[in-house]
């Protein structure tokens, strides 16, 4: 009974936070399942690979529910989202098959360092000038948010494909959905409006999680009895996260994203050193 309650709590909280800031929630689900299953044996049969595979299944639900909500409020750039998917999908499938070689301690250390770096970049993002390559008019899109702020952003297809392919590998490899990398990339490099970056990120999390889940299911890396509980609670949590996102300002979304990444980064580094 305790394990069921823990799973409900994990699924709901990870989906609320993940859909709110566009990271999907895998960064919460994976280390939590490992912590409860491997280190404390509260969840039987959990290995790092099974935690990653199970997380990929959950992110399908979180990604789908969040995407549908953001589509209604016109916070998803579907055109550029499909460009990102050309690299993200094959990368996700490839990453799922090399996850068997994953060393959890090294992942915690290096990915934690990366998250802290991204949180710092988000802090100074307004002082970072856009790369001239991205200012070509043929790639430009314009977006006006609810506060009347006008955004101009650019997505060169070839560059986007290369970057998202490597992000896709991390998606399948770590079961994180890719949002932790894609959202900062869209904010810092492509200069997406914050709300659009979050909505578009959830769309990519949905599709990349479907692809990586195929690879993990094929390898038997999914605990379906735990996944069922997590799916139900994640469904509710994702709906709550979308509603919260639509009621707060863009700068607040960025501040939340930065804080989440900093805390998670510190946590993962500490975990790798213990």
Automatic annotation (TrEMBL):
Localisation: Cell membrane; Membrane
Highest classification ranks of the organism: Bacteria, Bacillati, Bacillota, Bacilli, Bacillales
Coiled-coil region(s): none
Membrane-spanning intervals of the chain: 7-30, 50-71, 83-103, 109-128, 197-218, 224-241, 253-270
Name under which the protein is recorded: Probable membrane transporter protein
Membrane topology classification: Multi-pass membrane protein
Keywords assigned: Cell membrane, Membrane, Transmembrane, Transmembrane helix
Pfam families: TauE
Protein family membership: Belongs to the 4-toluene sulfonate uptake permease (TSUP) (TC 2.A.102) family.
Protein's organism: Staphylococcus simulans UMC-CNS-990
PANTHER family reported for this sequence: MEMBRANE TRANSPORTER PROTEIN MJ0441-RELATED, MEMBRANE TRANSPORTER PROTEIN YJNA-RELATED
InterPro entries: TM_pro_TauE-like (IPR002781), TSUP/Inactive_protease-like (IPR051598)
